[in-house]
Amino acid sequence: MKKLLLINPVRKKSGYLLSRFTRFPPLGLAYLAGVTPDDWDVKILDENFDPFVFEEADLVGITAFTSSINRAYEISGMYKNAGIPVVLGGIHASMIEDEVLNFADAVVAGECESVWPELLKDFEAGNLKRVYRGERIDLSDYPPRPRRDLLDERYVWQTIQTSRGCPFNCTFCSVTKYLGSGFRQRSAEDVLDELEEMPGRYVAFVDDNLIGSTAESRDRARKIFQGMIDRKLKKRWWMQTSINAAADEDLLRLAARSGCYTAFIGFETIDQAGLKAMHKGVNVKIGVDGYKSVVNTFHKFGIGVMGGFIIGNDFESAAYYRRFGEFLVKSGIDICQISILTPLPGTDLYQKMKEENKLVDNSFPKDWEKYRLSRVVHRAEGVEADMIYRGDNYLKKKIYTGFGMISRMIKSALALRRPFRIAGILILNRAMKRSWMKSYYYSRFPHDLGDADE
């Protein structure tokens, strides 16, 4: 029997990977295993938990984000030196195909499931092509279930994907380029059947927007939530959604009844002009002044809010960070994800900064490991990199220590009411704090803004 190794590389454990409560399994590799014929022996090697150890195989497949692509190249080199063919795929390979071809025997760009059986047949016939371009899959006819039996049992979260694509095309995000602007959805019944088959109680919907933005997508979400209640699945679950989900209170009530305890929402910035520059149209419409109302609506049904924010935008200042810090403490947002603006390959932001010569760390592929949302790799207008790092430290000190932390957790406890939801919020805040304390800039830059200009 031929042996296939599927590898999830990790160069450095940082950010979410520092806590088992914020690590997600490599679902994409499990999906590939699911469409691999039965005459292959498949194994997933996952560096989220254990360092890679070389194993013999007939064929190796490696996926990678931009921040881990150099580790993927390193592992690929080991197998190529041993005469074992390597296929590289994932979002980085899809965005920078020519670079990746220098380190692999074949590259899959796009959605791998659509071309994986063809690739395996070509390999068996000794006719492996250099490039395979996956088509965007019709999710109404979804491929076989992911091989969750091959994933590490130490993960807290079981993950499921029910849709692909995003119509919003924010400048800093590559999802639209990778998965398309159309919102493709699996049927509610298919999703519910898979949820019923999944082991464990904790589920993360890894859709970029589970609820979506149309009447059709909201109706599907409603059927999923009601189905989880009717089937008595008793899952506790997490989702990503957009700020406009707060407009449908009946839907959020159903989500809470079906077990939703946290929703990730991309607020991005408290600067209205910044939202426009990011093409964050739905946020612009609701407005920064409406953020608190959005949080209150989710809290009304006992759903915690994880707010995503980006700093390192043009013309930020000490005054902005002070105002931002006060907002975060008073907003009621239960968990704050603050990332540094990163022009990832495939985004409009990357293309713009490349054309304007604003990429400071641009010795590729070596510098890709800095593109991990916690390093300033670009030249921002009107604000120095040191100030961005100081601003990040200031904000995180504000929300994770002293009165700011106590005040936020009291607000969360009063809003969420149920003990398990409060406990989950506390655990995730501890994980985010640990991520900050292990960051590149934590010990290199001050944690206050000092006498910086207002």
From TrEMBL:
Q: Needs which cofactor?
A: [4Fe-4S] cluster
Q: Which GO terms describe its molecular function?
A: 4 iron, 4 sulfur cluster binding; catalytic activity; cobalamin binding; metal ion binding
Q: Where is the Radical SAM core domain?
A: 152-384
Q: What are the record's GO terms for cellular component?
A: cytosol
Under the heading InterPro entries, the entry gives: BchE-like, Cobalamin-bd, Elp3/MiaA/NifB-like_rSAM, Methylthiotransferase_CS, Methyltransferase_Class_B, rSAM, rSAM_horseshoe, rSAM_sf
Q: Which PROSITE patterns match?
A: B12_BINDING (PS51332), MTTASE_RADICAL (PS01278), RADICAL_SAM (PS51918)
Q: Which residues form the B12-binding domain?
A: 55-130
Q: Which UniProt keywords apply?
A: 4Fe-4S, Iron, Iron-sulfur, Metal-binding, Methyltransferase, S-adenosyl-L-methionine, Transferase
Question: What's the name of the protein?
Answer: Radical SAM protein
